Amino acid sequence: MNITHGLRRALQVNAGGLATVYGDRRRSWREIGDRVARLAGGLRSLGVAAGDRAAVLSLNSDRYLEIYLACAWAGAVIVPLNIRWTPAENQDVLQDCRPVMLIIDKAFAATGAALAEAIAGLRLVYADDDAAPAGMQGYEELIAHSPPVEDAMRASDDLAGIFYTGGTTGRSKGVMLSHGNLMANALSALAEGLFPGTATYLHAAPMFHLANGAAMFSILLSGGSNVVIKAFSAEAAMQAIERDKVTDTLLVPTMIHDGGYMDEDGFVYVVDRIKDMIISGGENVYSTEVENIVAQHPAIGQCAVIGIPSDRWGEQVHAVVVPKNGAQTSEDELIAFCKERLAGYKCPRSAEIRADPLPMSGAGKVLKRELRRPFWGQRERRVG
């Protein structure tokens, strides 16, 4: 099996059924099938050969779903880029996987242009509703002017995509997943009764992320409908759920890997953290990754990163540092230093510069619970 299996099946048994909804734009599986075959032809005309990498840097849209399918249809390997990374982080990824093409939307047009200057031979395709900027190939023009091609029919063992990790232990790593890998996961979900063909699935989580991808590939196999919002907000999600009669979605839990309890009615209450992870605005932030960056500042002798309460984000990243003897720094300087090296959501939003050493355990580890205590006070919950 491969990624395009579900599309081929939908074209056979439900060609007139609703495939995608994006705002007021609605397309059937027949329309999606034609656009995907033409887009695949367009990718080939631009030099994308079987096994070549095609990267994507874009907010959610119905086009993102088409790109996943068209890359597979053309025999290419999709590389979804993290929209919350800095240009430097994405450049590092592109230099690692060496794509021949980068597909971007309006939100990342400037970033894409800068990346194309830094990566030799990188072609840009502009996938949005307005005209393509100079030097970029228009996505809709590519579809309109390219004849459809036959499905490359990639084998189960063929590489389907490269999905980059969060870089929690250093440099982000590209995880190479085959068509069989992705389809096995999707079939497992379907076997559990999830995402049936009658489902209307809301893509609220980022489409570059495999958390959403796991559900997306299942829906593609079952032939359900896909409702897409550009980016998550509670208001946008609720409007889509009501307007489009959404039956299924995947939302990032408020907390992952935490301590808690279940009451007699079956409600689960999260009360404390098992692993040292901060969840800010639904994104996982590993404190060690941030600490590794803070520690690179020449003035820093000791550092620890913790999550503190935030009305807006649930938790926000907070750094506690001890300067080296005779060295000086400031909160603004530390935050600016991190912003040059980390995605915005990973950067400390506040910092404490202290003279006293950090509290340590007998084993020589920083006692982060002692650093958290002043912020969380007497709250029953010690996570956001």
Feature tags:
five-stranded mixed β-sheet, 384 residues, alpha/beta, 19 strands, five-stranded parallel β-sheet, 34% helix
Total number of beta strands: 19
Q: Give the low-pLDDT segments.
A: none
Mean pLDDT: 90
Apparent shape: globular
Share in β-strands: 15-25%
Largest sheet: 5 strands, mixed
The order of strands across the largest sheet is 2-1-11-10-12
Residues in helix, %: 25-40%
Intertermini distance: 41 Å
Query: Radius of gyration over alpha carbons?
Result: 23 Å
Number of helices, where a helix is a run of at least 4 consecutive DSSP H or I residues = 12
Which structural class should the secondary elements be placed in? alpha/beta
